[in-house]
Amino acid sequence: MAYYTVTGIVKRGIPVLLIAAIISTTSGQLLHARQELLIDFSVLLLLIPPLIKIGGDTGSILGARLSSAFHLGLADSVTSVVVTNSVLACLLIGCVSCVALSVVVWAAALLLDVEVVYVVLLKVTLIAGGIDMIVVFAATIGMASLAHRYGLDPDDVVIPIITSIGDIVGIASVFVAVSVVL
Amino acid sequence: MPERQDHLESYASVWGIVREALPFELVCTTGGVFAGIILVKMTDMIEMIPGLLVLVPAILGMRGNISCTLGSRLGSAVHLGLISKIERNPELINNVTGSLMLSLIMSIVLGVLAHLMTVAFGMPSAGILLLVLIAVISGVSSGVILSILAVVITIGAFKHGIDPDNVTTPAIGTLGDVVTMFTVFYTAKVVIWGWHIIQ
Fold first, then answer.
1. I need a labelling partner for A152 at 20 to 30 A (CA). Which of A36, A106, A181, B60 fits?
2. Structurally, how many domains does chain B consist of?
3. CB < 8 Å from A in window 17-46 of B
4. From A14, which residue of chain B is nearest by alpha-carbon distance?
5. What's the CATH code of the domain at B138?
6. With contacts defined as CB-CB under 8 Å, which chain A residues touch B29?
7. Which among A21, A42, A108 has the least Cβ separation from residue B58?
8. Is the CB of B134 inside 8 Å of chain A's CB atoms?
């Protein structure tokens, strides 16, 4: 008898994937609703996939670190030094990645002949990335401490939900940033 | 407990975390730009197939979730000594079949969900059949490509004495978006081409 079975994998996967599917099709609706803006300023289409990845990735790193810290008993509350330092580190990683991303997207836009103004791109990336990370990190800390308190394994549930939240908040914050900057 | 204190300090130091995670995050982000480049090249198809843009984050998200869990399960299976060769290995076959089954089921769900939500929001949709078709073809084909990559990377890492946990999931996470956008792009192209033939 195999340790991993097809039905076991499918059964364990479906509930979380369903929740993620509902969140991610909602983020798709956000894109669809602003489709004309995205086609007019197509540099946004270039920016959105990697930008929403930064929120999801840094949130996942934070989530994984917090769940390990809680598991190992290195942190007992959300104000302990392990938590605050992890948050700071993830914020720093995210900000540096956003600046680097704006440069890469700018270069790609030039190569592809997509209209772009670097300062505007940098502002949109930083504002959107900043909002995305603040919301995602708050959600991550909340979910990790809840999962810890109720004895759930955070690894299975927290990461997929965090990446989906990162997508929806990331897309929404790009539109917020565009309306602030333009 | 001085030892524990030392460990805690290095584990929790801001610079320590940044040094370890930042280089990889930069590679990932740059990889993500390639997904963006494919999306920019799709603008005319996005206009032709209303609802296609709804599917994009949904399929990317599903692909990331299913393939990364496959990667981490394969890593655990290697550590447990369940997988040491590729041929006729039930653990390997079940893991890959399981994640392909999940991809098929979730692709259908995504197509249906994308259509229903688009209509509910009062926006135009290309229709449930077309959206399900695009989701299933791109979701399953990217699943096949990434499963093969996950297996090859896991076994390759194991054979070279590298911990697959450190390699497989990051590699799949980085390649996942690009491979998936690529399959969405070609699926949309094929579907539009098929549509013209039927018309």
1. B60
2. 1
3. 17-18, 21-22, 25-26, 28-33, 35-37, 39-40, 42-43, 46
4. B102
5. 1.10.357.20
6. 50, 53-54, 57, 97, 100-101, 104
7. A21
8. no
Map B98-146 to HEC letters: HHHHHHHHHHHHHHHHHHHHHHHCCCCCCCHHHHHHHHHHHHHHHHHHH
Q: Are A101 and B26 within 8 A, CB to CB?
A: no
Q: What's the whole-number average pLDDT of chain A?
A: 89
At residue A30, the pLDDT reads 95
- What domains sit in chain A, N to C, each tagged with a CATH number? 6-181 (1.10.357.20)
Q: Provide the domain limits for residue B132.
A: 2-198
Q: Is the ipTM of this complex over 0.90?
A: no
d(CA A109, CA A60): 29
The pLDDT-based confidence of B1 (bands split at 50, 70, 90) is very low
Task: Give pLDDT tens digits for B92-151.
Answer: 889 999 999 999 999 999 999 999 999 999 999 999 999 999 999 999 999 999 999 999
